[in-house]
Design a protein that fits this description.
hpI Integrase, Chain A, mainly alpha, globular, DNA polymerase, domain 1, two-stranded antiparallel ribbon, 2 domains
């Protein structure tokens, strides 16, 4: 028996291929589009693009707003928004191919509460960076990870992809590929350079990765010939950071992204302009960088305190 939804499912497959080849979206973005759109089509039970109407979208928004996971929790507003963004992207693709369907601009995105970011203050940051025991290779590796994350603001996926041949004693910068395989330059602080150099002095293996795992009992050996040495995973990096945050007595949850936020906050509070920070973080849209308004807001407060009512105080 033929699948009654075969046409629209075929168009969905073509849309995902378009995202991969022509739009050069990341695999994560494509996977999310696939998930959100298949959820929509399974609920809608439609076979033709022209069956997508504003009323259908309205009912679907009610559905996902009431949807609960196995813990009885509702979908976050930002997650609901991602569902609608995926539908709009699909409709734009259909319009591009002159396929009759609902105009994407007729669908309004939900208002999302302004994001806030977690970051480490100066005291917390200093405690975290000072925590690793640098007397062996594992400690030098961990110190290098923390320093490089704070210096560059790299995402965890970017950090684990760095190879030894990208780092040199005279290099103050590093070209990496971020979201959408877009290249950008990040800058290595003198402290990060120092600790990476010390760490690499302890490396005599053939693994190309900058940051490798150390099998139990191997970190103190200067010549780790064990073939089990391999590139650290994002999960391993997260465990390392959690470990040192606890040892440093930091009660808030510390992730690689918190160090990325801390780097951006540090730059802005020291006077860097937001466009430069946008470029260093690899944000394609300035609005993403504007989540750091807590820094500029603090600066405005100081300006207000210093100058407001100055004439009245005379």
């Amino acid at each position: 028996m033929p699948n009654k939804n075969a046409q629209i499912n075929s168009l969905l497959t073509e849309f995902l291929e378009y995202c991969e080849i022509e739009k050069n979206h990341s695999q994560k973005t494509i996977k999310n589009y696939d998930h959100y759109l298949r959820r929509f089509l399974a609920w809608a039970e439609i076979s033709q693009p022209e069956q997508i109407t504003l009323d259908l979208i309205r009912k679907y928004r009610i559905y996902i707003n009431r949807l609960q996971n196995e813990k009885g929790e509702s979908l976050k507003k930002i997650t609901q928004s991602y569902h609608i963004i995926a539908i709009r992207a699909f409709l734009k693709y259909l319009a591009k191919r002159d396929i009759e369907t609902l105009a994407s601009e007729k669908i309004e995105l939900p208002k999302i509460p302004e994001r806030t970011v977690d970051f480490l203050d100066e005291s917390e940051l200093e405690r975290l960076l000072a925590t690793p025991d640098t007397s062996d290779a594992r400690g030098l590796r961990d110190k290098s990870i923390l320093e490089l994350l704070f210096s560059t603001g790299m995402r965890i996926s970017e950090l684990v992809s760095v190879n030894c041949n990208q780092i040199g004693a005279n290099k103050d910068e590093l070209t990496i590929r971020g979201k959408g395989d877009k290249p950008r330059v990040v800058f290595i602080s003198p402290a990060a350079k120092k600790w990476i150099a010390l760490y690499l002095e302890k490396r005599h293996d053939n693994c190309p990765a900058l940051f490798i795992n150390y099998p139990r009992g191997q970190a103190k050996k200067e010549d780790p010939s064990n073939p089990d040495f391999r590139r650290l995973t994002p999960r391993s990096i997260q465990r390392i950071i959690n470990k040192y945050a606890k040892l440093a007595g930091i009660t808030k949850k510390v992730t690689p992204h918190v160090l990325r936020h801390s780097m951006a906050t540090d730059l802005l509070s020291s006077g860097a302009d937001i466009r430069s920070v946008q470029a260093m973080l690899g944000h394609s849209n300035i609005s993403t960088t504007q989540i750091y308004t807590h820094v500029t807001d603090k600066g405005l407060k100081e300006v207000h305190r210093a100058f407001h009512g100055k004439q009245r105080r005379k």
